């Protein structure tokens, strides 16, 4: 069986994922060793100002990418973060790839104000392969922009789950250029949701919510039977906590981040005065993050996708006591996700690298 598995593996055996966050860049390298993916390197450095905004400092980002570059590997897999990428889960009639490409553009026009000719649009079928092979009748769709009616194969009653993706073409080209100037070649621009699913959701049968808590935003993905059922960007992240600590305790952002990671969410009788103050600050602002999560989970319940457990990743997930706090808030089992992937000595898993590792596994596990 192992020899058969090795024959099915891609010819390349060395991959790197680069996760450009709002405040930090993380890189993870994965090699296929004896037929098994293994994380062989983890690197991080501060991100340049204005990442994922119109104020991006390109030169600083190039220098930062050069700092985390691998001397042995130039090809990388990355993802577009923040609000630059728009994703939407929808249900469409079953149709051919060519017809689905037209339907995807039509659907994107409904909720993205940017003209479609300025976007790179992609779609991903989320249903099992056998479902899209069923023969279906023809139906007609009306396209308001052109005034035309097109006939496509499909049935609105027997639809398919589709993930629609759209990003400004200028942003995609800009990042290809920036990586190139840093001596790297972008082989794929992936989705954070796929990176998280790859790491924690591929084998999940019960409905599982995966929450990656970033700096400014967080990504929520719901998986059931190994398939993505829901994906949403939440407008809240760990920097809410950092900023609140910095403002209330009069310390700089870097010190506030360190204090946040070392503090506990809940108070105990043994805590010193400083720790107690930090804990109270955290408890005051954490509801702001949980409210965003609650809205999404409630919506999923209405759509008959009720999460049975919550898996955390991202640097803020290391906050002492956060799992217990969220368990009380949502009455769900909450754990920090541990990927089923090997790590070379002396590396150990850090939740901050979840997306970067998931990106690197894109080709290694295909």
Describe the protein's topology.
Blueprint lengths: L1 H7 L5 E7 L3 E10 L2 E11 L11 H11 L6 E5 L6 E8 L3 H15 L7 E7 L12 E6 L4 E6 L5 E10 H13 L3 E6 L1 H10 L6 E6 L4 E7 L2 E8 L3 H12 L3 H10 L10 H30 L6 E5 L8 H9 L3 E3 L5 E2 L10 H11 L2
Parallel strand pairs: 1-4, 3-16, 4-10, 11-14, 14-15
Antiparallel strand pairs: 1-2, 2-3, 5-9, 6-9, 7-8, 11-12, 12-13
Helix pairs in contact: 5-10, 6-7, 6-8
Describe it.
This protein is an alpha/beta fold and 366 residues long. The chain has three domains: 2-83 and 170-204 and 338-364, Nucleotidyltransferase, domain 5 (2-Layer Sandwich), CATH 3.30.420; 86-168, Dna Ligase, domain 1, CATH 3.30.1490; 231-336, ATPase, nucleotide binding domain (Nucleotidyltransferase, domain 5). 35% of the residues lie in helices and 29% in strands. The protein has helices spanning 2-8, 58-68, 97-111, 169-181, 192-201, 238-249, 253-262, 273-302, 322-330, 354-364; strands at 14-20, 24-33, 36-46, 75-79, 86-93, 119-125, 138-143, 148-153, 159-168, 185-190, 208-213, 218-224, 227-234, 309-313, 334-336, 342-343. The protein has a six-stranded mixed beta sheet with strand order 10-4-1-2-3-16, with helices on both faces. It has a five-stranded mixed beta sheet with strand order 13-12-11-14-15, with helices on both faces. Strand 2 and strand 3 form a beta hairpin. Helix 5 crosses helix 10 (354-364). The longest helix is centred in the last third of the chain and has 30 residues, at 273-302. The two termini are 17 Å apart. Residues 130-147 and 152-157 have low confidence and may be disordered.
């Amino acid at each position: 069986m192992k020899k058969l598995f090795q024959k099915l593996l891609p010819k390349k055996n060395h991959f790197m994922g680069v996760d450009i966050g709002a405040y930090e860049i993380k890189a993870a390298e994965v090699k296929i060793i004896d037929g098994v993916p293994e994380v062989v390197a983890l690197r991080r450095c501060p991100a340049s100002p204005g990442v994922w905004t119109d104020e991006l400092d390109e030169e600083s980002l190039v220098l930062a990418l050069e700092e985390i570059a691998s001397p042995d590997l130039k090809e990388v897999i990355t993802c577009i973060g923040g609000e630059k990428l728009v994703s939407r889960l929808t249900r469409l009639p079953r149709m051919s790839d060519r017809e689905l490409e037209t339907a995807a553009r039509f659907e994107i026009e409904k909720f993205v104000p940017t003209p479609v000719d300025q976007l790179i649009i992609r779609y991903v079928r989320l249903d099992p392969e056998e479902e899209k092979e069923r023969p279906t009748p023809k139906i007609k769709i009306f396209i308001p922009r052109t005034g035309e009616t097109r006939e496509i194969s499909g049935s609105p009653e027997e639809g398919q789950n589709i993930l629609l993706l759209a990003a400004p073409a200028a942003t995609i080209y800009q990042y290809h250029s920036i990586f190139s100037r840093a001596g790297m070649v972008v082989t794929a621009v992936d989705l954070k949701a796929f990176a998280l699913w790859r790491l924690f959701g591929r084998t999940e049968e019960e409905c599982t919510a995966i929450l990656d808590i970033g700096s400014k935003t967080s990504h929520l993905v719901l998986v059931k039977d190994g398939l993505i059922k829901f994906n949403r960007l939440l407008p809240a992240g760990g920097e809410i906590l950092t900023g609140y600590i910095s403002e209330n305790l009069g310390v700089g952002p870097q010190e506030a981040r360190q204090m946040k990671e070392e503090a506990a969410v809940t108070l105990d009788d043994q805590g010193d005065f400083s720790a107690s103050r930090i804990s109270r600050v955290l408890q005051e602002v954490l509801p702001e993050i949980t409210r965003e999560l609650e809205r999404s989970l409630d919506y999923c319940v209405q759509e008959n996708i009720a999460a049975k457990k919550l898996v955390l990743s991202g640097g803020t997930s290391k906050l002492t006591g956060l799992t217990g706090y969220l368990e009380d808030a949502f009455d769900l089992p909450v754990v920090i996700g541990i990927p089923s992937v090997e790590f070379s000595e002396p590396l150990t898993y850090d939740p901050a690298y979840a997306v970067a590792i998931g990106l690197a596994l894109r080709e290694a596990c295909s």
